[in-house]
Amino acid sequence: MSNIASILSVRGRLDEAEKIQREVLNFQLEILGPRHPDTISAMINLASTLFKRGHLATSSSPSSMFHESGWLWEARNLLQEVVNLCVEVLGEDHPTTLKSKVFLKHIISEQSRAS
After folding, report:
1. Rounded to the nearest 5°, which phi and psi values hold at 111?
2. What is d(CA 67, CA 1) in angstroms, rounded to the nearest whole number?
3. Is the dihedral of CA 15, 44, 71, 25 positive or negative?
4. SUPFAM superfamilies attached here (predicted)?
5. Could you give the C-alpha distances from 39 to 11, 36, 88, 103, in angstroms and in order?
6. What's the domain count of the chain?
7. What does R_g of the chain's alpha carbons equal in angstroms?
8. Which pLDDT band, with edges at 50, 70 and 90, does 60 fall under?
9. Which of 3, 64, 84, 87 has the fewest other C-beta atoms within 10 Å?
10. pLDDT at 58 (0 to 100)
């Protein structure tokens, strides 16, 4: 299912991608728990789609759409959780941890630009 969501996201069908990614994440959390690498990947995928939605919203109307949508905030909060889990589960120097930190900084930068 996550592959389908990725394809939908790439094709710009973000509503559908987000819905599937939330289902995948809920399933992963229930079956594997929050510390499993597949669950962490599902969180990153959802954060990526939320970021895309927030970025598109801010492109339309930089401050009003951003504050109304909350997608960037949700992406930021989710990614902060991902970074914390990555450090705990994978270690400080793991590639996924480092990529997640860079992505989080990018989201924070995007929020600063939009406000």
Report:
1. -65, -40
2. 30
3. positive
4. TPR-like (SSF48452)
5. 23, 5, 14, 17
6. 1
7. 14
8. low
9. 3
10. 57
pLDDT tens-digit map of 61-93:
555 444 446 888 999 999 999 999 999 999 999
Domain CATH code at residue 85? 1.25.40.10
Residue with token string 């939605």: 53
- The rounded distance, in Å, linking the Cα atoms of 41 and 85 is 11
Q: Of the candidates 115, 96, 114, 112, which has an alpha carbon nearest to the alpha carbon of residue 47?
A: 96
Average pLDDT over the chain, rounded to an integer: 88
